[in-house]
Specification:
Elements: E1 2-6, H1 11-23, E2 27-31, H2 42-47, E3 55-58, E4 61-64, H3 66-78, H4 87-113, H5 115-123, H6 126-134, H7 139-151, H8 156-177, H9 189-203, H10 215-225, H11 228-233, H12 240-264
Parallel strand pairs: 1-2
Antiparallel strand pairs: 1-3, 3-4
Helix pairs in contact: 1-3, 1-9, 4-5, 4-8, 4-9, 8-10, 9-10
Length: 265
């Protein structure tokens, strides 16, 4: 049986769980508590040296990187049907899988610059925060995390994130306008790969990123959230009290972020 190491609220874990649910696949679930730092356990790092989730085990094969895992599952368990046969649409879907890297970074930036930062600053000492950052192996990621905690929404990384999202939402809107889904006329890997990221922004109370300039994104998200896979893979892992607290806290940051978003547009 497939074994998945994943985090409850990790957007990349959600991406893989959505794919598993859409394909109707069973798996052995191994939850990693990211808040407790279980991703840094030496046994887990032997599977995933970057100390991130998710990680998929299929017999003796270890697969990391969420987009790659989703494509692997589609290819090995679904005959690749989530990637269109049309070469132009196939190229589009594969491009979106690559773009997930920038989209993920952007969503992570907005999360840490707003809600995560406020919660962390209120609950941890500077020494505890630095100790957590020091456990990150990548020096560039450490530097970025320090800057986000120091400067919040004023960080230069926030401007970069908004630029990436503005372009992504514009392209998503154009693609949705050509069919029912980002992937084309049928739902595909591009849709499954993107839903957790856009859902996270909604859960942060940042729907203003698409309400007026890109309403097709909001309509697409509603369709994705209505699918059984969304309930199984995302909603069931997030208690309503947690979701409401996140939206409430996030809404406090929207006025400042909204001004920056208007400047990007």
């Amino acid at each position: 049986m497939l074994k998945l190491y994943h985090g409850k609220t990790s957007v990349c874990s959600q991406k893989v769980r959505v794919t598993l649910a859409e394909l109707g696949l069973d798996y052995e679930s191994v939850l990693i508590d990211l808040q407790k730092g279980e991703q840094f356990d030496p046994a887990y790092k032997r599977l995933n040296p970057d100390a991130v989730v998710p990680t998929l085990i299929d017999d003796d094969l270890v697969v990391v990187e969420s987009s790659l895992i989703a494509e692997y599952l589609d290819k090995t368990r679904n005959e690749g049907r989530l990637i269109p046969q049309d070469i132009a649409l196939e190229t589009r879907v594969r491009h979106w899988l690559l773009r997930c890297i920038d989209v993920h970074a952007a969503v992570s930036t907005l999360s840490f610059a707003s809600v995560v930062r406020s919660k962390t600053l209120a609950s941890k000492t500077p020494e505890q925060i630095e100790a957590g950052i020091a456990r990150m192996s990548d020096p560039v990621r450490r530097s970025k995390r320090r800057d986000l905690f120091a400067n919040g929404l004023s960080s230069i990384h926030v401007e970069q994130a908004l630029q990436h999202l503005h372009r992504a939402f514009g392209d998503m809107s154009a693609h949705i306008g050509q069919g029912d889904w980002v992937s084309g006329p049928d739902i595909g890997l591009a849709d499954l790969a993107m839903v957790s990221y856009i859902d996270r922004l909604e859960r942060l109370g940042f729907t203003g990123l698409w309400d007026e300039p890109f309403p097709a994104v909001g309509a697409w998200l509603a369709k994705m959230q209505a699918r059984p896979s969304y309930s199984t893979a995302i909603d069931e892992f997030i208690p309503e009290s947690m979701a409401q607290a996140q939206r409430t806290e996030g809404s406090k940051h929207w006025p400042e972020l909204g001004q920056q978003w208007d400047a990007i547009g």
